[in-house]
Amino acid sequence: MLATRTALLHVFLFVPIAYLLAFVGFPIVYNVIMSVQEVNLGNIADLVRPFVGLDNYREVMADASFRKVFINSLVFVGVNVVAQVSIGLGLAMFFAQRFPGASFLRGLLLASWMLPALVVGALWKWMFATEYGVANFVLRALGLIGSPVHWLSDPAVALTSVTIANIWFGMPFSMILIAAALTSVPLELYEAAALDGAGATARFRYITLPAIRPALLAIACLVTIYTMRAFDLIFAMTQGGPLDASNVLPLLSYQFSFQQFQFGVGSAIGTFAFVIVFGVALVYVRTLKKEGGE
């Protein structure tokens, strides 16, 4: 009986490990290998391809579009993390109050997060349309603009447009995680603070925020990872344009690989993005260990 249980344990351990190696580990290793090779349409099916060392990385670093896209990615991720966590915190605390329709409204917000990113991108592309978009219609009705804003075709505002769309798309994820963290804060602390005369701001600053700070850091790491992988929403809205104004690293890697057929250069860009995500993932894991008291 013990031998059977041991065998089953090994089987249950082998299946997820095999899955991770096949669908996560192998693509990562293969991408790194391609990044140090010269890979094009002529030799992509070959097992042995010319080794070029770090030439692809040097080409990427010397490319002006990469530097621009790298800065875009940092801005895009930074604004998304701050906005999604901040708005998610505010909404989580709002919906923690009991009032009629709270569950329904919370469900509406979560419904947006469950939509496919391509659908969300198409929706916001329609909303940001220059002539018939909802955004320009509302701003005109409020008297805030005199002429239509070219949300998706103006390099000055294209990145702002996709950032707004991604914040709307990802914010419910932060909200639901923060709401779960808020349930772990003992109500007795709030009651004791209220008896001592502490106001809402003081209770938030000295009770709520310290109690959920580890959770907020973990959520910020998750949002960073997910935002660094943003591709389909931006592809549906602007395809990285105009003039790379809304382009990010995953999309640039796709463009080099499947539009210019420079697979080695595209893999090098993908490796840059992976290194950033991997570093954030390590921070996330350390946060979870610290929160768990290990």
UniProtKB/TrEMBL annotation:
Q: What is its main location?
A: membrane
PROSITE patterns this protein is in?
Answer: ABC_TM1
Do you know which InterPro entries this protein is assigned to? MetI-like, MetI-like_sf
Q: What membrane topology was assigned to this protein in its record?
A: Multi-pass membrane protein
State a single Pfam family of this protein: BPD_transp_1
Q: Does the record carry Signal as a key word?
A: no
Report keywords, A-Z. Answer: Cell membrane, Membrane, Transmembrane, Transmembrane helix, Transport
In what residue span(s) does the ABC transmembrane type-1 domain sit?
70-284
What subcellular locations does the record give?
Answer: Cell membrane
Q: Which family does it belong to?
A: Belongs to the binding-protein-dependent transport system permease family.
Q: What is this protein called?
A: Sugar ABC transporter permease
* Source organism (scientific name): Alsobacter ponti
